[in-house]
Here is the input.
Amino acid sequence: MKKLFLGLIATVMFCFAGNAQEKLSSDLKSVVDAQMIALVHTAKQTYSKGMTFAEWMKQAGPNSPTKEETLLMQKVFSYLSNVTPDVDILKQDNSVLLTVSKSTISDSGTNTQNRWCFSCILEAIKEILEVIIKHLQD
Here is the structure.
């Protein structure tokens, strides 16, 4: 009985520990998915087959990424390493891109000579999303 009770408590705790994701309207989802495809295509410049996530982050990621930025970079890396077709990217939940674009974007650092400017690209995507969201609400 004691194990059953502790199991029930653990189950309840796990149910409330998850992160809620933002539910996107179909119009907004299509815009976010299109921007994710653009981000993945831009990131292809920095990825070489067989590269690990740590190697890619050292080359392409921000110096001190936030939790959300790390999740976004993991998703982009997953698409790159699996050579995910655009059609499959459209079917995935890419709401993390919208979450990152709503927050302050980390700086890519001053040494951008051989680096993919993550913050520059995200700032451009952020501006595009803001304009489109504004027009979707009208």
